[in-house]
Write a structure and sequence with these properties.
9 helices; alpha/beta; 37% helix; NAD(P)-bd_dom_sf; Rossmann fold
């Protein structure tokens, strides 16, 4: 790892790549997020499977993509704008012996999801795992500050995109396929400065549970992971310096989590180790107790 897991003087919130702010590359962050544990070599739990990971270029998405590759999965990474992050993640995946396809575009537009599925099938001829992890957030001090444009945009990126991608993929998913949605602890405890973002995350919880019931007879599992404060490019790109400095200090473990600390949960939900789980939530949040 680039740094040891320890108490860092940094951030509070949870997620992935911001698609509509002045985003930054992981290489610009100090300290850089930890996305891999080189001492863990993988056990072939996802051998020859094909996974689509949205927001897979950086943050939690990068950690997921790398962990999947180490378990033998080929990975299709969907990203919005950071070519440098995407190229680096692709190289890491290939260095672990898996294939990686990069696709750049706006998940908030339904036609892009159609292109993702078509291109994935052309390249790999199968889809086994879908991880919806791309998201954006724009902190505001009051509801009055949230414009119509921001409200529509955040719902398109955070929840409409999940509908679009899964709808296009479903005709090609077979029994045993796994869908994993990235939620947030804000879905359960709220956030006074992320009202619209929290609303999208609440929608993801209902979507995950309802879709899991709908697809149970087809033996396609649908689960979600709800991160707490995780150190990703989304944090310094959307919060003030003081917020970043104190990020993660309000949870029992009193520090932000690293992306690598979530990756194994996604491997578990994607693998045969979780075949009796659907409609469930894994909370990885530094010890905060939440319902759901």
């Amino acid at each position: 790892m680039k740094q040891e897991l320890k108490d860092h003087d940094m951030p509070r919130d949870e997620e992935i790549k911001d698609q509509n702010t002045d985003s930054i590359d992981e290489s610009e962050m100090d300290p850089e997020p930890i996305y891999d544990n080189p001492t863990h070599k993988g056990y072939g739990r996802l051998k020859d499977k094909v996974a689509i990971v949205t927001g897979g270029d950086s943050g939690i998405g990068r950690a997921i993509s790398v962990a999947f590759a180490k378990e033998g999965s080929h990975v299709v990474i969907i990203y919005y704008d950071s070519n440098e992050d995407a190229d680096k993640t692709k190289k890491i995946i290939e260095d672990y012996g898996s294939r990686c396809l990069l696709m750049k575009g706006d998940l908030g537009k339904s036609d892009f999801s159609r292109k993702i599925i078509e291109r994935t099938l052309e390249e790999f001829n199968r889809i086994d795992i879908i991880v919806n992890s791309a998201a954006e957030q724009h902190p505001k001090d009051s509801l009055e500050e949230i414009s119509d444009e921001q409200l529509e945009r955040i719902f398109r990126t955070n929840i409409f995109a999940m509908f679009y991608l899964i709808r296009e993929a479903l005709p090609h998913l077979k029994e045993g396929a796994s869908i994993i949605n990235t939620n947030s602890n804000t879905s359960f405890v709220g956030n006074p400065r992320l009202i619209d973002y929290s609303a999208t995350k609440g929608a993801i919880s209902s979507f995950t549970r309802s879709l899991s019931l709908n697809l149970a007879s087809r033996r396609i599992r649908v689960n979600q992971v709800a991160p707490g404060p995780i150190w990703t490019p989304l944090i310094p790109s959307t919060f003030s310096g003081d917020d970043v400095k104190n990020f993660g200090k309000n949870v029992p473990l009193a520090r932000p989590g690293q992306p690598v600390e979530l990756a194994e949960a996604y491997v578990f939900l994607a693998s045969d180790g979780s075949t009796y789980m659907t409609g469930q939530t894994l909370h990885i949040n530094g010890g905060e107790i939440v319902n759901g």
